[in-house]
Amino acid sequence: TLKQFLRRQQVLQLYRKILRAIREVLAEQDRRYLKEWAREEFRRNKDATEEDAIRMMITHGNMQLQELQRTLKLAKS
Fold this sequence. Notes:
Blueprint: H1 2-23, H2 28-44, H3 51-76
Helix pairs in contact: 1-2, 1-3
Main location: mitochondrion
Subcellular location: Mitochondrion
Function: Involved in efficient integration of the N-module into mitochondrial respiratory chain complex I.
């Protein structure tokens, strides 16, 4: 359905944003760990179909992305 398509686009957009943020991590080992963590989280939840659960996971993912971005900003200053 259109709703599912749009939700999928949201999830993919979040995944790309997280990977872009991870590229800014200076330490190679940390970058690898975070990339694997992100992949595993998305892979683990790829079969989720319940709308409320998916919305909650997107919200949680956005909060984690913001936290990562804040941490990177602090590390650079």
